[in-house]
Amino acid sequence: QLQLVESGGGLVQPGGSLRLSCAASGFTLEYYAIGWFRQALGKEREWVSCMNSIGGIAHYPDSVEGRFTISRDGAKTTVYLQMNNLKPEDTAVYYCAAEFEPDGQAMCALYEYDVWGQGTQVTVSS
User: Fold this and answer.
1) Which of 14, 65, 67, 113 has its CA 20 to 30 Å from the CA of residue 91?
2) What are the two backbone dihedrals, phi and then psi, of residue 25, each rounded to the nearest 5 degrees?
3) 94-122 pLDDT, tens digit each
4) How would you classify residue 29: left for phi > 0, otherwise alpha for psi between -120 and 50, otherwise beta?
5) Is the dihedral of CA 40, 91, 98, 106 positive or negative?
């Protein structure tokens, strides 16, 4: 069974940093496109980062560009989201997602992903 498990969330002050992890269980992430999404209370789930399955090309929306960095470990079992200069509006449940994509295309939309983690809460508050 393919599973993703997020960790690393918590409470942080504005301007602080967190690193989220997303560990794959039952498969490796080779040839998988990866996405990070978030959902704030009362809002729709939105994309915050995605990475191509081949080449590791990262993509970000303007809201997090320059502050968030997606990366993957060499063993291709864990994906990370480094979040710096966090703002109160970054408060949300963060989810990672994976989808087999051997052609190396970027996948940054919710509907493109079938495998999801359970989410980890990030709260940015003083």
Assistant:
1) 113
2) -125, 130
3) 999 999 999 988 899 999 999 999 999 99
4) alpha
5) positive
What are the pLDDT digits (tens) for 45-96?
999 999 999 888 999 999 999 999 999 988 789 999 999 999 999 999 999 9
